[in-house]
Amino acid sequence: MRSRQGGHFRCVDIGQRFLACLLILAPLSWGFCQSFFIDLTASPPSIPADGVSTCEIIARVTDRAGNPVPDGTLVRFSATAGRITPEASTQGGVARAILTSDRVAQFVTVTASVGDSRADIEVEFTAEGMGGRAARLIRVRGDYLAYSLDRRILIGTGNVRLRHRSITIEAQSLQLDVELEVVRAQGRIKVSSPKAEMEGDRLYLELRTLHGIMLKVRGGVEKRFFGGEDLKVYSHDQPIPPHAFAPVETEGTRTWIVAKAVTIYPRERIQFVHASIYVNETRIISLPYYIIDLRFVTGFGQQQLSVNTTDGLVLDFPFYIHADLTSTTAIRLRRAGTVGKGAIYARRRGWGIDLERQYVSLDGRREGVISLQDLHKGRKRLTFVWQHQEEFDPSTRGFLHFSSPRLRGFYASADLYRMRPGGDITLRAFANRAPGLPLSYTIQLGMRRRAITKGPLSRSFFGSVQWSKFGPQKGEGELTLGVDLYPRFYVGGRGGWAVSPWLRLSQALSTRKERRTNLRLNVNISRHLGRAGQASLSFSYDWQKSKRFGTYMRQTLGLNLYLGGGRRWFGSLYLTYGLRDSSLYGYSVLSYRFAPRWRVEIQAYLHRYLGGSLKEVETRLAYSIGAQEILLGWSSRTKKFWVEAAAAAF
Length: 650
What we know:
With 650 residues, the chain is an all-beta fold.
């Protein structure tokens, strides 16, 4: 990229800019099609780096149709630091693991996997006085700032000022590695804090640890190794690490973002003020604010562009009219896709214009989204949505969702979750009111004791009190008590088959003096196959009896197989069979990369149910362009070819 002083960027007309913004700017990202979808949450998202603090990792697993996987499905967990429960079985589609911190302040990546599907989430181990979102902020100003989207490197020249925590860096030239959070600067450098300051000609500083090297070459070479916010010098004669002062190469960058000011929330997002976006040295668009999501998940500033066979063109483009440290306001142009977050969302059809405000506190404990959807349809078609979550303390979290379609009627849900040494307490409330109908609501208080383990057997007691009222019907209360038993043993040693039975017994009594007895049994037999493979067989039995609904019974067999050959090939098979109704659901995929840029994939679906069945085989040929793929497919059901490019963030 040429600097502004070294040449002029070429401009294009408005039509070319818009087309290039949609088709060139978005670095589309595709991955292998997954058998399952995993939604990971960490509660709380940050814990002290003291070696004893814990957070709960919650994995919600669904199949391709969005249904919870059968109870007993094995989920494997791993973490880049600390200690974590290695595996857990699902109950109601949810598996839980406990992550324990170590004594080093750092970001930890937690991975959950089921067969060939996986998901990641980051948890922060914080040192004393270093936690919180505000402490991680990096703010940069200068005469000229340019961010390499390809390399994740920020370059600044001319009166550059970088602020992080209580430290300020002033330099004529500066380079920030956003991913590693490393600063390299040169030319009349000044580093200052309320307690000290130092000057030099070359600087290398790791912002995560606040350890760095200042090199002074004027009037004789002097090395100073320092650390901490007080800039304490602890050595003058240590060897300098290789490439400490060598700037990261940005030659070949395709997309640059030039801005007046940049605020970086490490591993979260980057916020640009007065941003101009250049692709191949051509200015595509200029915006008052521009935001990049570093997590590539739905949240602050994610723009999407995709093409698929279900919705055709899917677009989500926010035009930011306000942005600061704690909030953004945007007008979002959308077409198709989904609206909402987490488990509460709806599909959008056609075009839409939304006004959206996202907010988050500086300590990261409070965040949410408020939106008015479908502004272009007039007041009578507006939809109001509010989603909020808050961490009251390290062990207590709350979630709220409120929506009012067309500003008539509403649906609301609220959850308060508290972890205690002896167990977990939850308070849940649901309410809805359709236009012209009376209010319906449910309030539930539940408690689950922490599992007690003796030998190969773990047990956990639970109970809940609930009050419900549905429309004009009389309200009804219910008391439920139960126990979960988790025996575990291995056949052929710990490297052989693992047998994981799960048994739940519960009894419910309502204010109508009606009893409901429930028994659920799940047996899962699993074994690791090599480094990446896994095979599991499962049997589930669900029996329920009540005076009002009679007796209900369901029995299901399940098979889950995954085999992998590194990056070259993988295959998976997932089957469930209902023993009483003979229902059958199956999905399999086999992928083989026969050349560096080419791979072929075969997917097969089978769904047999009472009164019908559905079968389909899809053959796909994929071509890679960098980290991108274009798919050419053939469907045995429609007898048609199709082309797909999916899920984009830019």
